[in-house]
Model the fold of this input.
Amino acid sequence: MQPRIVEVRQGILKKNDLLAHELRARFAAAGVCVVNLVSSPGAGKTTLLEKTLAGLAQQGRRVAALVGDLATDNDARRLERSGVPVRQITTGTLCHLEAEMVDAALAGWPLDELDLLFVENVGNLVCPASYDLGENLRVVVLSVTEGEDKPLKYPTIFNAADLAVISKIDLAAAVEFDRGQTLRNLQAVRPGIEVVELSARTGQGMGSWLQYLERLEPAALQPGVAGSGRPGPR
Ligand code: MG
Done:
């Protein structure tokens, strides 16, 4: 039975990739840059997004967010406070977002009125790695409280990311975070990956993160360039 199970799984991934390809083309045509945030639960995706949406909106950027969780719309309600459009995707028992859910959640949204759309994936370092959502940029968030060896334990998701954000750096001393070891582990699984270190709570490093997002946009808007530079499983 084993080979048959593998075939079915490959079939689901292929269907997802086709739809993700369509989404990527639609995002490019609308001139919207899409950022997929992945991490383990509790790494600080929602807090980071809360501050990011507020910061970008303040700069006059047109931003919105889709938020994935197994249950509750707590994160969407938190993010709505930043005053930008937010939609929650509730996945039920599913441990990741799929292109189909993003497609459905976007129904009726005027994409061409947006500059940046953030997708907060379900907190999980395994399954989201395999599902392309048509994003331009995949960001993996790793908090200082999680342990320096996370990249080594979950190489697939770190390898499939374009940028690593080390979050909660205000807690680094309290948890005796080994910054050097973490950076070495990140480079070991994804050589050359850019890293931004920040604390969404204190604001430290947030300027670099917002600048990174500013730099990203023009390149991602060029047709044919969007989504093509990322290594990892597709
Ligand atoms: Mg969250």
In short: The helical segments are 2-30, 45-58, 74-80, 99-105, 150-153, 155-159, 179-189, 206-221. The chain has eight helices and seven strands.
